[in-house]
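PROTEIN DESIGN WORKSHEET
SECTION A - STRUCTURE
LENGTH: 402
TOKENS:
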């Protein structure tokens, strides 16, 4: 029963366009099975407004790396909150956080901060244009880089000129990228890519063995900047950035989601050679100097380094994905978990209309498991092996019904 959830949604429809919008809109998930509103959360579980407890495998769509309401992070945030969050000027926390990122990320010489990943992916392509004095940006088809008109997945309010300087190629098809550089090389400011391909409504695709070396070489030869959008994957593949996991070096990298473990913050880091150009691209927001979010981020990064969290969530993800696919196989269901195991995307073979994966996730919802049918899942370090075993036990009951 979703009585409270539905009643709140009816109120919302009167005062909020769509009631709930964006990637958390009911239609984007399972509106008859997922709650529309949450009440509270701790660790790897949350409770909806109807009092049902869920084992969460979305982790705030990736923002929760260390578990909801992590005490160490909350203590750091509360200590700063007593002093204040947003002032006329930034706090020393900004400098401390920038120093940590520059020390942690092997190519970084500077860092800037905002609130959302989209804020800084858009800013980063402007830095590339300022640095190179060129117009074109290249991205992968189907890749998500934010809500701005140059990259958003919707059509509303967009005009042709919004994307006239955006060029696209198919992920892993470096021959297509080579053709783009051959035709437009002296006009390409930068290439922006995620560490691996994670589109919605489709399998995640890892880079082929020479993908990143080929992309890096093309950018270097043309004098174009390589921009890593590590907003979604940052912290779940390697504690020092996903480029270390795939063994390449970008020119700029953008982080958000897990950076603040639920506190709204994003960061862009870059090399010394782009520092002057970056200072010439205007960047500001009244609440972007939020010291509480920065204190939370400092604590989050400290935990990740101390506890080797990226390795932990990858190991837990491997354990979970292996058991899940084995159980599915025992019921003759061809379920595969694509992408990195710390943030896998589930796919059932010959399910092009996604009916089976939707039904699977719907049955799992009945077992109190929050499995999204259209988006990659996330493992947080608050998932214990015992909780993962319990999730597999519940999944087995759902698969039997499927």
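SECTION B - SEQUENCE
RESIDUE ASSIGNMENT:
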């Amino acid at each position: 029963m979703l009585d409270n959830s539905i009643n709140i949604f009816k109120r919302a429809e009167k005062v909020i366009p769509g009631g709930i919008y964006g990637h958390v809109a009911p239609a984007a998930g399972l509106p008859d099975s997922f709650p529309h509103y949450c009440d509270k959360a701790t660790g790897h579980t949350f409770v909806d407004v109807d009092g049902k407890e869920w084992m969460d495998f979305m982790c705030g769509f990736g923002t929760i790396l260390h578990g909801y309401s992590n005490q160490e992070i909350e203590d750091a945030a509360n200590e700063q909150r007593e002093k204040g969050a947003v002032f006329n000027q930034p706090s020393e926390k900004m400098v401390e956080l920038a120093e940590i990122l520059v020390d942690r990320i092997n190519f970084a010489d500077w860092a800037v901060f905002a609130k959302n990943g989209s804020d800084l992916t858009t800013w980063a392509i402007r830095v590339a244009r300022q640095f190179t004095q060129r117009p074109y940006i290249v991205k992968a088809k189907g890749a998500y880089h934010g809500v701005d008109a140059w990259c958003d997945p919707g059509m509303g309010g967009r005009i042709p000129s919004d994307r006239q300087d955006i060029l696209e190629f198919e992920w892993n098809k470096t021959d297509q990228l080579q053709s783009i550089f051959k035709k437009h090389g002296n006009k390409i400011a930068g290439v922006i890519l995620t560490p691996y391909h994670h589109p919605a409504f489709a399998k995640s695709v890892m880079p082929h063995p020479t993908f990143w070396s080929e992309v890096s070489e093309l950018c270097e030869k043309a004098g174009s900047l390589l921009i890593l959008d590590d907003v979604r994957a940052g912290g779940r593949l390697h504690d020092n950035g996903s480029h270390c996991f795939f063994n390449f070096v970008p020119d700029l990298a953008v982080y958000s989601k897990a950076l603040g473990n639920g506190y709204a913050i994003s960061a862009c880091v870059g090399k010394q050679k782009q520092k002057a150009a970056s200072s010439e691209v205007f960047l500001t927001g009244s609440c972007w100097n939020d010291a509480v979010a920065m204190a939370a981020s400092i604590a989050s990064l400290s935990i990740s380094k101390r506890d080797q969290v990226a390795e932990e969530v990858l190991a837990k993800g491997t354990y979970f994905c292996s058991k899940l696919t084995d159980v599915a196989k025992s019921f003759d269901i061809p379920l595969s978990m694509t992408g990195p195991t710390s943030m896998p995307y589930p796919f059932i073979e010959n399910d092009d209309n996604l009916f089976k994966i939707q039904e699977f996730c719907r049955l799992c919802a009945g077992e109190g498991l929050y499995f999204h049918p259209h988006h990659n899942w996330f493992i947080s370090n608050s998932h214990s092996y015992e909780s993962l075993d319990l999730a597999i036990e519940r999944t087995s009951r759902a698969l039997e019904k499927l």
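SECTION C - NOTES
The chain has two domains: 3-69+309-401, 71-307.
Residues 66 and 381 are 5 Å apart (CA to CA).
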